[in-house]
Write a structure and sequence with these properties.
Length: 614
């Protein structure tokens, strides 16, 4: 028979449509207003915290839909937005500053759907609402950190090469090395030129000056922006904000968009969690009590210890957190919490050189946060307060390298929090919020209603036209069009990182027309074959076969354009390109294979077919 599909093709169509429908299903359940509670600084989320949350809500007349504890985070599901806001005020007062109480939206799909990876489609900032920040990187602070690190590396290099020097200090934007004689100047100049090729070296008597070249300065600034973008993205992901948009804008600015975050103040707290990290030696040669009375020795500084007390540390920075590539919490041989650290090769060499002669000495981990003060400068920028505190002090048992551990970090929860911060990375420089914009959930809901109205209007009009103009074959095309929408939503829900935006909805609307276009080409070819006197069965076969090349050419060229848009575009352009590309693939499947399967099943088995309703 001319128009007969093998059984495996029918099964393939059924399986593809069933899987698409299954993963599109969570979108019917929507999302619950929720509150997400996580530990901040010395706080710890436990089952007792969950009990405290439940009692606080019940005593104030709020009955949550559910309270769960997972991955050290409590999620409280509520009935309405008003109840959500009321519960946030209650829990803020109950839990205090040791916890972050953030508004959120939690998927409401059944547990069995979640168990197989079924999640609702993630919505972008323009549809879900959220906050938009324009942040500026403090390049002066970044360059100062680099110069401090440069001083340490120059000293280590000169000691390693056995070159004697009088001092190595910062001098403005340069590093100034004072040596003992002309021979040492020549030797140091040769060694440092090779070791620090991004710097220009000049001599004046016994002084060698290292200045950052213009090209290296631009490269360093670009690296600072790129590193901060990566770290901001990691930190926001670790803190549970879904599908953030974090990208560079201009020379020294970063755009951060957090969909679903309904509270600007909480969003600032999330961004304020970004920090730097330093390892320093404890000053054991001077008396801590003298320093606490105001007599701080030269070359050292007094730091506060998290949890209480103070510690005297050397000014020399052994290592900063930007060399950490991985960190995880665990327990030592005495079942005490610890943090296991993995450094990159450069960091491992620096740590090895620094600890070679300091076995038995204590080393401190200094955690530095930049917290918004709530005040602004004359030019409108938000001021940040630099908060530094010692989070752990551990004795160096052996010469350290790329892998080592931090002990004495307090509770297991403290170890987990510190490992999270180390994994997410340390900013190379502080950032300041220079612009802030909020997209309310109501505006996002209005965008969704408008977008859905446009899609449904176009969809219904196309259904009516196809049903009237192509009769029964038009109904087949309508079934394929409906299936196409289901597959687009299912694939978008299944792809990690895929986010639906307003331009993405425009892409879906465009694919509605493109999907019908393929069916129009096929049906018109069938009509032409019938006019030329072919039998209905022959007309169906030749119609599909002859239209295939035209459909493939048109869709493949459009797919290439969508791929280019995704590769070179940003933000809204990518959102449009993603839905367009997915829609092209699904429309080709439904138009060529899906409708052919239906047509073959209905008309292909009729041996005495004399007329087609087309």
């Amino acid at each position: 028979m001319l128009n007969k599909f093998p059984t495996w093709k029918y099964l393939m169509v059924i399986i593809v449509v069933a899987v698409g429908a299954l993963y599109a299903l969570p979108n019917l359940y929507g999302e619950d207003p929720a509150i997400q509670i996580s530990a901040q600084r010395s706080g710890e989320v436990t089952t007792s915290t969950m009990t405290q949350v439940q009692r606080a809500l019940e005593s104030n007349g709020i009955e949550p839909r559910g309270v769960t504890l997972e991955d050290s985070t409590i999620l409280v599901r509520l009935e309405s937005d008003d109840q959500q806001l009321a519960a946030q005020d209650i829990l803020n007062a109950e839990l205090g500053r040791d916890y972050i109480v953030a508004l959120n939206l939690a998927p409401a799909q059944p547990a069995w759907l979640a168990a197989i990876g079924g999640q609702p489609l993630k919505l972008g900032l323009d549809l879900r609402g959220g906050v938009h920040f324009l942040m500026e990187v403090d390049m002066e602070e970044a360059l100062m950190k680099i110069r401090e690190q440069m001083v340490t590396e120059v000293r280590s290099t000169l000691r390693q090469e056995s070159i004697r020097y009088r001092s190595v200090e910062e001098s403005g934007n340069d590093v100034e090395v004072v040596l003992r004689n002309a021979e040492d100047v020549q030797a140091a100049s040769r060694v440092l030129r090779n070791a620090f090729q991004g710097y220009d070296a000049s001599t004046d008597g016994n002084t060698l000056r290292l200045s950052m070249s213009d090209d290296y300065l631009q490269e360093t600034q670009a690296n600072a922006i790129s590193q901060n973008i990566t770290i901001l993205r990691n930190r926001v992901n670790e803190l549970g904000v879904a599908e953030p948009v974090i990208q560079r804008q201009g020379q020294d600015r970063i755009v951060v968009e957090l969909p679903g975050v309904q509270d600007t103040a909480r969003a600032k707290e999330i961004l304020g969690a970004t920090a730097t990290l330093e390892f320093r030696f404890v000053d054991t040669e001077n008396d801590l009590r003298d320093a606490q009375q105001g007599r701080v020795p030269f070359g050292s500084r007094l730091y506060d210890v998290r949890g209480g007390g103070q510690q005297l540390l050397e000014n020399r920075i052994i290592l900063t957190g930007d060399h950490i590539v991985n960190a995880n919490s665990g327990f030592d041989e005495n079942n005490r919490p610890q943090v296991n650290i993995q450094l990159d090769s450069a960091g491992g060499n620096m740590m090895s050189l620094a600890t070679r002669d300091r076995i038995g000495d204590p080393m401190a981990t200094v955690f530095i946060e930049f917290i918004a003060t709530g005040e602004t400068t004359a030019d409108g920028r938000i001021e940040f307060e630099r908060v530094e505190e010692v989070v752990s002090v551990a004795t160096i048992q052996a010469r350290l390298g790329s892998s080592f551990r931090i002990t004495g970090v307090g509770s297991p929860q403290d170890a987990q929090n510190l490992a999270l911060l180390l994994r997410a990375g340390a900013l190379i420089a502080p950032i300041q919020i220079v612009e802030e914009r909020t997209v309310g959930p109501s505006l996002g809901a209005q965008n969704i209603r408008d977008g859905m109205t446009a899609i449904l209007s176009g969809f219904i009009l196309v259904l009516i036209f196809m049903g009237i103009y192509y009769r029964k074959f038009g109904l087949v095309a309508n079934a394929a069009l409906f299936t196409n929408l289901i597959l687009i939503v299912g694939i978008m829900s299944l792809i990690p990182g895929a986010t639906l935006t307003m331009p993405g909805m425009a892409g879906i609307l465009l694919t509605v027309g493109m999907a019908v276009d393929a069916n129009v080409l096929i049906f018109e070819r069938i009509r032409e074959e019938l006019k030329e006197g072919r039998s209905p069965q022959q007309a169906i076969k030749h119609g599909y076969d002859n239209a295939l090349s035209s459909i493939a050419d048109g869709n493949i060229t459009t797919l290439i354009a969508a791929i280019i848009l995704f590769a070179v575009g940003t933000g809204p352009i990518k959102g449009f390109a993603v839905t367009l590309a997915i829609g092209i693939v699904t429309s080709m499947f439904t138009a060529i294979i899906g409708t052919r399967a239906i047509v073959n099943f209905i008309w292909g088995r009729q041996k005495r077919l004399t007329k087609l309703s087309i």
